[in-house]
Structures
1.
Amino acid sequence: MTSKYPHLTSPIKLGNVYFRNRIFSAPMGATDITPDCYPGPRTQGFYELRAKGGAGSVTVSELVVHPETDASHMLHLDLVTPGCLAAHTFVADAIRRHGAVPSIEFSHSGQYAGTYLTDKNKKESLCQWGPSEGTRPDGRPVKSLSKEQIADIVKAYGDAAVLAKRAGYEMIMVHAGHGWLLNQFLSPYFNHRTDEYGGSLENRIRIVREVLEAIRTAVGPGFPVELRISGSELFDSGYDLEDGCKIAHALEDLVDMIHVSAGSYQFGFYVTTPPMFAEHGINVHLAAEIKKHVSKPVATVGALNDPAQMEQIIAEGKADVIYMGRALLADPFLPNKVMAGEDEKIVRCLRCYTCMAERPTTGTRRCAVNPIIGREIEGMDVTPAYKSKKVLVVGAGVAGLKAAVTAAQRGHKVILCEKTDKVGGILKSEQAIPFKYEMYQLGLSLEQQAIEEGVEIRLGVNVTPEYVATEKPDALILAVGSTPIVPQLPGIDGDNVVIVNDYYLQKEKVQESVVVLGGGLAGCECAVHLGMEGKQVHLVEMRDVLAADCNIRHKPILMKQVEKYATSHLRHVGLRITEEGVVCQAPDGSEVLIPGKTVICAVGQRANRACVDALRFCAPFVREVGDCIRPANITKAVYEGYHAALDI
Ligand SMILES: Cc1cc2nc3c(=O)[nH]c(=O)nc-3n(C[C@H](O)[C@H](O)[C@H](O)COP(=O)(O)O)c2cc1C
Ligand code: SF4
């Protein structure tokens, strides 16, 4: 069998180690770390799943090498706590037993120690260290590391390397990017030292050379060491790509691969972890340029998930290895699907940032489209039911689709009824918004899975109690979703009004000036899209905050886009709609016209409770899932659909 993607799926040798393909799992901080700084069982499951899915290598992230100056980073792993080696050995084993190479990222947060503390007040009792004295953007003072401390940190990298190798890790990634300590030394923005660790580029890279030398001495020849850098810091007064090339060139003799990421925490993580508004592979050009200046293999990363694009990157010599972060949370089996040429089965990452938002919010990990992320030890496999049953799923939105697929995978006979003529529910409306197209694709890929699993899909069927009585299912899953709220304002029935869910059907109707009524997540994203299309957009919200329903990582990025593409009117209450726009009550009580030839109504959704009430006693097992309980988000719908099916 020949590979559909011969470059992406070809093995690579780094040092003395073979990797089965070029798809590597990027470091992503895990879910549970014990109070003793050990990787807990959930952490092991978190990494193991991606090894099982076929990645060439899986990187365990955020091992803090020098807790004395970095221990303030909550949820950190280290290799200095007595007894921690066993836990690391179990993690490395768990990755290795599925054919992936276990790698571990060594990190030091430097002045950003404590950044992820869920309890922000704790930062007050911490001390942050960097190359030079200064003040963090959040006001925390930063102390300058002494030469003795630097020597101690360098030694700590070597000590950690000895233990990492002993635990069974087969590669070490040294993190010198994203604005963490080694990056702070490389950066003229952070590093104002006047000794041999500051000033010239040669001096600024000195600590990184020392770290790499200490690691090499510790692990010996042939053990792959990878250097993760930001190809460019991508902000004024940080270092640029030209310097990035010089840094890579100056350090390549000490490493087996240069891993080119981007950006600096100081100016937001969105360059490093690109949002849905950025093009796929936005940072590949950095790797491609650096590759021209080094002879060692180069890895690229950032918003990559399309096998054809990744194949092309390697075929064109822009990089040798592709790292993926979020795409492998959304679908850990992406590499296996690529190897089998089944890319139509890939579940795409939405770049919604739920995964990143969970940790600062709840201290866990979660993925919107993959219900087992962060919960892998609760069961990585969908297991067959002890008895095959007849399952009727009502509603083919995301919750119903996920329930139907999962129930069918368990061996149940599943009928999925949808009252409209297409599956996908609310996700159908995302097809007209390019940066949300992957949400639409989620519906398509779930539909494809349902067909493959033998789910019988019945379209145009309104399920009534009589219908259920005729079918006599053993289990009934109610995934009947929600309906857009349409405020009863004068003018709401006008031809100039489009309900946001119908935008994809009525796109052509939308004029050059638009009022979006409702500044929740859907309204904000629609406003941004219309602005990107060149329309003049006004966004009206009755509360004093936009996108209150948005996660804390997506929100600041979304707000920047809203600022760029729309004029917002907070605390404005819509009174009536005219051909000229929406007449609102302004905060001072006066009436103002917010102008726009088209009005997009995006004031929220209401759960279809009547439908649930009509059906809730119609089968021996009945479960409600998704928006019909309470309109929320994809994460909740997928999670509930999946677990309802596991309970049958
Ligand atoms: C949930 C999450 C956790 C991350 N944790 C780390 C980390 O601990 N260390 C690190 O170097 N990068 C971390 N990153 C950045 C990723 O390694 C990667 O560079 C970035 O997400 C871009 O790749 P992607 O677009 O494929 O997700 C994290 C990213 C995510 C989404
Ligand atoms: S939570 Fe969202 S951004 Fe994170 S991996 Fe899942 S789909 Fe992608």
2.
Amino acid sequence: MPKFLITGSNRGIGLELTRQLQERGDYVIATCRNTSEELINLGVNIIDNVDISSGHSITKLKSKLKDIKLDCLIHNAGIAEYNSFEDLDPESIKKQFDINALSPLCMTRSLINLFNKKSKIAFITSRMGSIDDNTSGSSYGYRMSKVALSMAAKSLSIDLIKKEIFVAILHPGLVSTRMTGFTNNGISTKESAKGLLERIDSLNSSNSGKFFHANGEELPW
Ligand SMILES: NC(=O)c1ccc[n+]([C@@H]2O[C@H](COP(=O)([O-])OP(=O)(O)OC[C@H]3O[C@@H](n4cnc5c(N)ncnc54)[C@H](OP(=O)(O)O)[C@@H]3O)[C@@H](O)[C@H]2O)c1
């Protein structure tokens, strides 16, 4: 049974990814800071108190995982705070960089021994981190953190290919979650998670390190 580990699984896209993996019979280690009723009801293996930006928290997670081998790690957890040019808040920008970009990279480094040949690491980045696609400006902290995450993931795809570990760099779509104020313009978590899992399932040596929308479209950097 393939083993997946997901961050930020208590709500939003992470919760739905967990639900769909569980439904199709995969083994899910659902990590989160605080669990939720919806997550508990899925009956998966939950590890809470996992704050991805805390080294101590990741060390504790690693000791709980012991020698388990992971087929896939999905870096889903993230935050979005709005920073316009007129209202720049450097602390907010640093916090987003820390959680969205640096933490997934450091967590991957900490857990690297848990991967096998053909294991997969998926980074949920954002189209907001595409330089080519940026036509509306602003959102400094979120955009800067996600472009940094995509770059880290791209480098990892090159560094890990010799171990035959493949890296997915994925935009989930505009999704109706708390992050987007449950926007009516977005797709459902169900549709997004279905697409993300299709991308992860089709990840291999030839498309590792490419940037895809959940719907399969290859996105510009
Ligand atoms: N929704 C969209 O349209 C959209 C578009 C592009 C990319 N994304 C990306 O998709 C991912 C999931 O977003 P979402 O829409 O599902 O957002 P969400 O509903 O706000 O969920 C965010 C998740 O991340 C967790 N999280 C935040 N900081 C964390 C930390 N330091 N340690 C561990 N967990 C942390 C949250 O946990 P708590 O409950 O503890 O806060 C929550 O589980 C994010 O990376 C986001 O940037 C979303």
3.
Amino acid sequence: MSDDTGAIHIFFQYLSPVVDKTSYEFLSPDDRQRLALIRHERRRRQFVAGRALLGMALADLFGSAARRWRLEARTGPLHLEGDQAPQISLTHSHDIVACAVAPVPVGLDVEYCRDRDIAALVAYVCSETERRAYGMLPAEDRKAWFYRLWTTKEATYKALGGNPFPDVWSAERRWLAHSESLGFHVRDTALQRASLELPEGFVGTIVIANARPIRLQMHELP
Ligand SMILES: CC(C)(COP(=O)(O)OP(=O)(O)OC[C@H]1O[C@@H](n2cnc3c(N)ncnc32)[C@H](O)[C@@H]1OP(=O)(O)O)[C@@H](O)C(=O)NCCC(=O)NCCS
């Protein structure tokens, strides 16, 4: 496939119950050391599947040129090093793993919407404006609203770094109920966010550091 540099690519996949042996080929020596420290069985599968998915995504988009780039996690968050390397982001939740490949800084976050003490989380991670907005919602809308906000915060953090709980409340407030790409600002940086179409029970958000609307291409791998 030839790369369409204007598009942001998202690859996602269901986690297989057993790690395919070929997936280990995508692990660098550093990755193998990190994997050795992960005890939780599903977390191990997520780690290996994330690296394999990213490797397959890059090969699909860039062919043999992808071999120029090296995945690096020792210095800062996971990123690609090498000439003209694209920006990437990785996420896993429950039995889904996903990665984004973009020409500009990108953050991707997927969450399985399990039941948890949403009110306590709102008190912890939300700005005052966000808390007020949450308080005005009907009870049945609060969980979905919160997960959209949470994944937007996580994706923003992944794209920009800095404050782990960025205030992502936007002048364009309708984005919280909207699935199209919409703009907002964090610390004077223009960003775009979009909700992902994912299987029932999951919420996913992508954030890119770009003022222009996002053109997403979703790729589901078997
Ligand atoms: C690091 C963090 C962003 C990971 O998010 P998560 O939802 O726990 O887990 P996800 O599966 O979505 O993402 C994990 C991947 O993110 C990547 N990652 C880790 N730290 C990162 C960072 N600082 N920036 C960008 N990407 C990062 C890694 O690739 C990691 O996968 P790997 O360990 O298999 O390589 C999150 O734990 C965190 O610290 N968030 C900030 C504060 C917070 O608690 N926010 C809550 C919502 S407001």
4.
Amino acid sequence: MKKEGKPVISLSQLEKIAKAYNGSPNGGPALDFSNTQIAFAGKDNDELKRTEWLFKLMNNRHLVSIGSKLGMLGTKIPLPFFESAVKATIFKQFCGGTTLLESQPAIEHLHELNVDSVLDYGAEAKESEDDFNRTMNENLRAIDFGSTLPSVPVISSKITGLARFELLEKVSKTDATLTTEERGEFKNVLKRVDAICHHAAQQGMSVFIDAEETWIQPAIDLLANRMMKRYNKEKVVVFNTFQMYRTDRLAYIAESFDLAKTHGYLLGAKLVRGAYMEKERKRATEMGYPSPIQPNKDATDHDYNLGIQFCIENHESIAVCNASHNADSNLKMAALISQKNLPKNHPHLQFCQLYGMSDNITFNLAKAGYNVAKYMVYGQVKEVIPYLIRRTQENTSMTGDLSRELTLVMKEVKRRGI
Ligand SMILES: Cc1cc2nc3c(=O)[nH]c(=O)nc-3n(C[C@H](O)[C@H](O)[C@H](O)COP(=O)(O)OP(=O)(O)OC[C@H]3O[C@@H](n4cnc5c(N)ncnc54)[C@H](O)[C@@H]3O)c2cc1C
């Protein structure tokens, strides 16, 4: 049995789906996510063999389990050689660099293959006002940096990098009253988020506001809605993120759209399935409230695809980013664009995957002429360890099967005969 949350589509299923969608939406080259020649065209033989070696290591769950524990230890105490080993292996696969400048070659390489980059400062949840200001300044620097490059239209921002988790939790509770001090603290959060969105608007960039846990999401939604109201009048500067593994989010997309229409702004909607499923379910069980998560994967997929469809139907007033590694959802969006006869590079229609993952989807979409980008995570090795651990766990086999990524890399190695 597959572990929950893991991709469930096989290579042969990919081939079947590609045939079912009949290849060539909007007259461009056929979309076939099993085409590994296009997927790995950006890698020479040595790079491809290194990638194969790395995904083989990640496929081993014992190794990943030991590596994850060492990784968490490495964030607390200095472990000799650990940082350099991580940097030469998984960091290189999933991150652009330790700084913006160090990430530039990776960004330019993607640009040569018609793929944009979304700058994502990888440092996770912070605690102090100094830390929050540092994250804000890092986001502002990313906007400046991105505005000088032709293939960086957007940065992503996590509100937990800019605000105290407990404060967001309190703001999210409908029955809680903030103390005077907390009200001042939240005003500072608003100022930080506004500084980022304002700067993005001035520099011609956009901001994706990431979605997080349900018990802090109302505060994040509040901030995102305020920013969209302020900055999305002429074009979409700010995007909120909708996690479709939640039972209430399909209705919330429609509600957000109504709000946007009422106040005369455009809706920015980044759709994801959601990254905190186990944590959400565990908390709901422990605290005795109904789980906010869909009962099964099919229900998540159903709402995800309907959400994409809703946004495309309303693409004149909604800019959508389909942020997913799910082949079926990507093909469905391409097919809808085709059915509606919309330009593949319409500025309101975007696809996005994480750097180092699902290259078969990214580069095949790019080759066919769609707007597609990679989340380009950057930051000091220590800062991005939790992100790297999540990526390695996604590529681990619980069953002894080969992971989807490894299967694709091996197919290309075989095709090249190396
Ligand atoms: C560019 C990008 C940006 C992202 N930004 C965010 C973000 O801001 N916030 C965030 O939370 N996540 C974010 N994610 C992660 C995302 O939410 C998913 O966890 C991840 O992409 C896997 O989902 P998928 O659509 O790629 O594909 P799939 O592999 O098809 O789906 C796996 C996902 O399906 C859902 N799922 C799995 N099993 C079940 C089940 N039994 N019942 C119900 N649902 C189930 C879970 O959400 C799981 O992660 C982002 C991902 C990408 C690619």
